[in-house]
């Protein structure tokens, strides 16, 4: 398992809350662009930025 697998799973769970059904297509499209890019982009953007403490789901979507 890669070192970003856990953050990727967290990112996909958050994305599912924000946009039901989106995780599979987003991950597929990012990996089609460049293998492994879903881990890099989603783990950073959704876990490190949108997943930080103090943001509710409504604020995350803005």
Question: Could you explain how this protein is built, in words?
Answer:
By secondary structure, the protein is mainly alpha-helical. The protein has one domain (5-60). The protein is built from 4 helices and no strands. The longest helix is centred in the N-terminal third of the chain and has 14 residues, at 5-18. The protein is globular. The model has no long low-confidence stretch (mean pLDDT 83).
Outline the secondary-structure elements.
Blueprint: H1 5-18, H2 22-33, H3 37-50, H4 57-60
Helix pairs in contact: 1-2, 1-3, 2-3
Low-confidence stretches: none
First-to-last CA distance: 33 Å
Q: Averaging pLDDT over every residue, what do you get?
A: 83
Q: What is the tally of helical segments?
A: 4
Cα-based radius of gyration, to the nearest Å: 11 Å
Strand content: under 5%
Give the ordered list of helices and strands. HHHH
Number of strands: 0
List keywords for this structure.
mainly alpha, 62 residues, 0% strand
TL;DR of this structure?
By secondary structure, the chain is an all-alpha fold. The protein is built from four helices and no strands.
């Amino acid at each position: 398992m890669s070192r970003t697998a856990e953050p990727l799973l967290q990112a996909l769970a958050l994305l599912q809350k924000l946009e039901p059904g989106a995780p599979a297509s987003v991950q597929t499209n990012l990996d089609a662009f460049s293998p492994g890019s879903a881990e890099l982009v989603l783990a950073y953007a959704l876990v490190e930025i949108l997943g930080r403490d103090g943001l509710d789901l409504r604020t995350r979507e803005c």
